[in-house]
Each structure stands twice: as C-alpha cells, then as structure tokens.
C-alpha cells in the first residue's frame, strides 16, 4: 500500500539474498504488534507515567522494592497473555530455512523470539520471567550453600522464605553490565555480518545501540526497520519506515 516502503524493500532484498551472514538487533517495537507496550512511546509507553530511574535501576528497586516488583509482575502477566506476531514468526522461519545464517540479538526481555522458535537468541537485557538475588543469599558462606532463588516468595516484599534476602527480576537495569558472554557473542555477530537489520528499537540505549555502528565499520550494510525516526538512522544504508510485523515477512520470505 505504501509505494516508498515497497520500493525500499525491493532495494534491500538482494542485499539479504546475497549475504552469507545476517545479524538482527531488535527492540520493543518488534513486540508492539503482539500487544506489548514499548518503553518510550509518549502515550502508551511503559514509562509514559513514570521515571525510568525509579523502575529500571538498582537504586529505584532499593528505594521501593514492592512497587517495582509489582510493576514487573504486571509486565509478566501482560506478556504471558500474548503471542509472537508475524514479525517474530518470519524471523524464526527464515532461520529454519537457512540454519546459522541469521543471528538474533535482542534487547527484549519478553521471550517472544524464543517462543516463535528462533534458536540461539542473544538476549542482552536478561529475562523478564527469571528471578535473581539482589545481594546474594544471606545464609550462604560459599555459592554452593546459597538458597535456590526459586525459594523466594513473590509478595510483600519478595523475599526468600529461608534466608530472608530480597530477590529481583533477572533483567539488566541502567548502570549494570550486560551478560559478558552474550554481549561478546553479539559483538562477534555484528563484526561478522554482511547485513545488520535494526528492528523496532529507538537506538538510545548503549552498548546495544553501538552494535549497528560496529557492523557498519566492519563493512556491513545497515537496514533500519521502524515506523518512526531513530537515533541509528544516520548509520543506515536503508530506512524501511513501517511496522515490523508487516515489513519482516516481506523482507524474509
Ligand atoms: C516499532 C513498532 C512496530 C513501535 N514495528 N517498530 C554511552 C552513551 C550514553 C549513555 C551510556 C553509554 N553507555 C552506557 C550508557 C548508560 C546507559 C544508557 O544507554 N543510557 C542512555 C539511555 C543515555 N546504559 C546502561 O546503563 C547499560 N549498562 C552499561 O552500560 O553497563 C556498563 C557499565 C556499568 C557500570 C558502570 C559503567 C559502565 C545497561 C542498559 C540496560 C537497559 N535496560 C532496559 C530495561 C530492561 C529491563 C526491563 O525490561 O524493564 O532495557 S532500558 C530499556 O531500553 C530496555 C530496552 O531493552 C532498552 C531499549 O529500548 P527499545 O527496545 O529501543 O524501546 P523504545 O521504547 O526506546 O523504542 C521502541 C521503538 O519501537 C521506537 O523506535 C518505535 O518507533 C518502534 N516501534 N512500534 C517496529 N510496530
């Protein structure tokens, strides 16, 4: 229906067809059409009525663990109720047809790429559904003695039934390092690819956003898929201005 978008898709399809290795960096926008809100949308975003530093930092959690825990519980319930959309599915089907050719690197914590069947997803910002200790298990003198984090009782506030220590969602908050091996694998994929697709992310959060520039400097073509402008548009060889559940099936068919 959109001639400019159709022309841009036609322009880049040969790049994908001839690329031996493709990397894809995804963000909240790929799950928007499943019904998961993005973070930064001014009206519908998860942070539209809150300050990110209150909800997505260790300091915010320590200041009010109950509030932040309840907010993550709300998001867990929201994501449990949704399904992967046509964009997630097109990616997984491409990977099934072309094993080892496309590496999915996601900033999302919702697990929807995995639910669609994508193998080896590099989840840079953790997992919404896993818990972790905030300060470790209070009883453990050595790691082997630690209470399993599953002993925590989600509640008021979320504490381990045995040792009383606080748990937190196993996601990466601002100021925290990304999982080292996952980030290294993502950087390797960015360096090795011939095409980097940047899909559904505002490109404002580092170090994830830096992967597009790394790929470009290593010689890859960078394709941004997003209905809106992003901080990474200057890195792009092509801008596909459309929603991912429409664009990805046409790009990866
Ligand atoms: C559609 C669509 C449709 C809508 N189809 N698209 C360098 C420069 C400046 C700052 C820093 C820097 N390096 C590090 C920093 C600090 C910080 C940072 O990046 N700050 C900037 C924001 C200024 N980074 C960090 O703190 C990181 N850690 C770190 O650097 O550690 C090293 C270190 C540690 C200690 C000391 C020193 C160094 C950690 C970042 C962790 C980010 N975590 C979050 C929360 C995760 C938990 C949770 O889910 O609650 O991750 S923040 C949040 O943003 C979340 C997302 O993964 C991330 C990215 O957001 P995303 O996905 O782009 O979403 P939106 O909402 O921004 O955009 C949605 C897009 O979709 C929009 O463009 C729409 O148009 C589009 N869209 N519908 C396609 N249908």
From TrEMBL:
Origin: domain of life: Bacteria
GO molecular function: histone deacetylase activity, NAD-dependent; NAD+ binding; protein-malonyllysine demalonylase activity; protein-succinyllysine desuccinylase activity
Binding-site positions, substrate: 72, 75
This protein's GO CC annotations: cytoplasm
Residue span, Deacetylase sirtuin-type domain: 2-253
Enzyme Commission code: 2.3.1.286
Cellular compartments annotated: Cytoplasm
Catalytic activity: N(6)-succinyl-L-lysyl-[protein] + NAD(+) + H2O = 2''-O-succinyl-ADP-D-ribose + nicotinamide + L-lysyl-[protein]; N(6)-acetyl-L-lysyl-[protein] + NAD(+) + H2O = 2''-O-acetyl-ADP-D-ribose + nicotinamide + L-lysyl-[protein]
Keyword Cytoplasm: yes
Keywords for this protein: Cytoplasm, NAD, Transferase
Annotated positions binding NAD(+): 107-110, 200-202, 226-228, 244
Keyword Disulfide bond: no
Pfam families, A to Z: SIR2 (PF02146)
Active site annotation, chain numbering: 125
Main location: cytoplasm
Written domain comment of the UniProt record: 2 residues (Tyr-72 and Arg-75) present in a large hydrophobic pocket are probably involved in substrate specificity. They are important for desuccinylation activity, but dispensable for deacetylation activity.
HAMAP family: Sirtuin_ClassIII
Family from the record: Belongs to the sirtuin family. Class III subfamily.
Function in brief: NAD-dependent lysine deacetylase and desuccinylase that specifically removes acetyl and succinyl groups on target proteins. Modulates the activities of several proteins which are inactive in their acylated form.
Record's protein name: NAD-dependent protein deacylase
Gene name for this UniProt entry: cobB
